[in-house]
Amino acid sequence: EPEVTQTPSHQVTQMGQEVILRCVPISNHLYFYWYRQILGQKVEFLVSFYNNEISEKSEIFDDQFSVERPDGSNFTLKIRSTKLEDSAMYFCASSDRDREKLFFGSGTQLSVL
Amino acid sequence: EDQVTQSPEALRLQEGESSSLNCSYTVSGLRGLFWYRQDPGKGPEFLFTLYSAGEEKEKERLKATLTKKESFLHITAPKPEDSATYLCAVSSGGSYIPTFGRGTSLIVHP
Known about the structure:
The complex is a heterodimer of chains A (113) and B (110). By secondary structure, chain A is mostly beta strands.
């Protein structure tokens, strides 16, 4: 069964460093998303991406964040200068024309020290 | 702003002991209400979408129902493998983006 793949599964970085989280969405999907989940809290929407541009973003997704689809298969989330409060599990998701049925990856656990 | 409140936060059941999880929501124009299952260390897994009051969806031991203010996830004769966190989410207005609640952590003891 097709699945969303995220790498790495764990990332440890120093405060102020740049990180790139990588995702390979399901191949025929059209819509791509990043969510995050701080330990013990709810899953929060960051950004959605369609047709090579951001379609929606939340207040969390400020200038420190960016997304890119560098080729036909990868979808990345970049955090330019990480902060302690960026520590969270980051989930990538994708959907086909049924935009409300999201398929999530297993996440990247980001720890900022 | 969409609000989703799930109760209880945690629920322990014996195998075979049926129960219900609640999701109450406040939105401006519900587009859809969703139930997801999340296992530890994994991303949410889609279960159901409900669109209008009175609608019901079933999958194995799970049945989701929807009213104008809340949704219930009924679990009939649960098994230990049903242990997970169950997340409720809503989308509203012109947005297809789900807003999630905090979830209910379900543990089913054999």
